[in-house]
Amino acid sequence: MAKQAQGTLAKVLKMIEEDTYCPDIIQQTDSVVGLLKSVKCELLAGHLDTCATKNLKENKEKAIQELIKIYNLSN
Q1: Maximum distance among all alpha carbons in the chain?
Q2: Contacts (Cβ under 8 Å, ≥6 apart) of 5
Q3: Which residues 6+ apart lie within 8 Å of 32 measured at CB?
Q4: pLDDT at residue 67, rounded to an integer
Q5: How far apart, in Å, are the Cα atoms of 11 and each of 24, 28, 38, 54, 75?
Q6: pLDDT in tens, 19-41
Q7: Taking the alpha carbons of 23, 24, 25, 30 in that order, is the dihedral positive or negative?
Q8: pTM (two decimals)
Q9: Mean pLDDT score of the chain, rounded to an integer?
Q10: How many CB atoms lie within 10 A of CB 25?
Q11: At a CB cut-off of 8 Å and minimum separation 6, what does 4 contact?
Q12: What pLDDT, on a 0 to 100 scale, did the predictor assign at position 1?
């Protein structure tokens, strides 16, 4: 999905260079944003399943602080 976002973003840049009709560029930009949100969600799920679980066992306070930081960055 990250590669797809990269390709779509490259298309947006090309559209800008070619002076494509603005609403078409906006539509492609929304597509990039959606793809990046999906990538972010997958990364978070993987982190919670592996790293965060391990971190909670090793250092609960630090793990909770990290999760709060991730939460705050998401808003």
Answers
A1: 54
A2: 32, 35, 36, 39
A3: 5, 8, 9, 12
A4: 92
A5: 11, 8, 19, 39, 28
A6: 999 999 999 999 999 999 999 99
A7: positive
A8: 0.75
A9: 92
A10: 18
A11: 35
A12: 81
The C-alpha atoms of residue 20 and residue 11 are separated, in whole angstroms, by 11
Tokens representing 73 are 């960055």
Reported residue count of the chain is 75
Going by C-beta distance under 8 Å and a sequence separation of 6 or more, which residues neighbour residue 64?
Answer: 56
**Interval 43-70: pLDDT, tens:** 999 999 999 989 999 999 999 999 999 9
The residue type of 71 is Y
Q: Which two tokens stand for residue 54?
A: 């391990």
Tokens 């492609």 belong to 28
The residue whose two tokens read 């090793």 is 58
Contacts of 15 (CB under 8 A, 6+ apart): 24, 25, 28
